[in-house]
UniProtKB/TrEMBL annotation:
The chain crosses the membrane at residues 20-43. Keywords: Membrane, Transmembrane, Transmembrane helix. The keyword Transmembrane applies. The lineage of its organism: Bacteria, Bacillati, Actinomycetota, Actinomycetes, Micromonosporales. This is Phosphoesterase. Residues 48-61 have a biased composition (Basic and acidic residues). Residues 42-61 are annotated as: Disordered.
Amino acid sequence: MSDKDLKQAEQSRISRRKLVKYAGVGATLAAASPVVGATAAFADEEEERGKQPGDSRGRVWRAGDHHVHSEYSGEFDTSSNPPKFHKGADAVYPIVTNAIMAKNFGLTWAMCTDHGGPTHSKVNLEQAYPDLLRSRKLVPEVLQFWGMEFDAPSLDHHTLMIPRHEDEAKQLFELESRFAKYDAFPSDPGRDTEAKMIEFLKVARNMPLKPIVIAHHASRSAPGLGVYGQDTPREFRNGNNVAPDVYIGFEGAPGHQAGPLNGGDRGGYGNYPTHGGFDQMTARVGGLWDSLLGEGRRWWITATSDSHVHWTRGGSDFWPGEYSKTHVLARQDYADIMDGLRNGRIWVGTGDLIRSLDVTAGSQGRKAEMGETITLSRRNRTDVEIEIRFRPLDGVNANGDRPEVRRVDLIVGNITGPSADVNADTNPTTRVVARFGPRDWRRQGAEYVIRHTLRDVEQDMYARVRGTSTDEMEPLADGLESPWHDLWFYSNPVFVRVR
């Protein structure tokens, strides 16, 4: 980290000391008041959302975080039977503190995702869930989902998001107690197999109210570029084949992004680094994400905090919403948020580089947006008009900066159908077809607009967008630079089908 970065980090530390002081006390804070005064950047968030036009169903972009830890990410004393659980060993904040901070940084939905362990399903049911119910009452402005950081059989951690309903606690208990690889006591090696993961997904897909499963920090254990660790392309494909409306994606931008502020690795990726804060599976054009999209899979990316301990208290984390956000086009409704996640109405960003992003593909009088498909006829002209709209941040972000978009890239790839190689991790057709700078977009109200024509589209394809505050043509491997100086946003794809 340079002297300049160290100085800015120290200034940021000082400016946030008061914020951390009242947020860190947890239960005392919750008892005193369920509402914390928002920072300048987000004080008008609800008012601004009310001004957004939204879609015909009343949906607007709503920021959230589906990977947040509380004091129920603890430890177990296995010298006794049953094991004794101790709170706060890994993550330290009460559930309500996370909800307060999520609200403070502009989130309208969030999810508590605590680690499992021997008999943790009972801890969730008997201790954590009642705290979640209290937090929902104290911070009603934030929709607070129930679920966990699932110890996925044969894989690294995953979000397991449960739909909001009367028996949500029972549903999570059933799935965790039956399938989480560390829940059994004594331990059961038979739980840690790909076959067990497939069994879990089959049960989940047949539930009347289907959960959502999203892979966490998918390349954190990868030793190199294109060399994977616990999570492999084969396992993603096999799982998505079994339950395509349950197993829907991975974190494009993992949490622990504040690591460099304390001399650590961004994202906790100590083997092979993130690129611009994004996992290699997402950041590499023509890489694994594009390989999955090139098969026509509806496989989405998200961005999370993975918050355990704030960096100003020696951790490697930002608060929920402080740095990373997953934006979902939805109503302020539990079911519609999950519908947006399930169907790819999602864009992600870091450092609040922008506040909204819309990508549409139009042709022959038809139009499709992120997560949707536009179907065209070969009998007519098949030019496709891509429109990109983004809204810059009004005011400053949580670091006190006014970030500016330096460039926006339009990325397209062909859809060629299922790959014969279940381990494939490249799509050679994927390319950046256009790069746009400030001279290429025009102001329209509060938004900037970019239009580009894809000529003579003759086969199925997808289009996605990314943007950055940097001058890097491709996101570089991350070191100890401040994450606030390396900001990116990514859309999920819009699909074009030619018939």
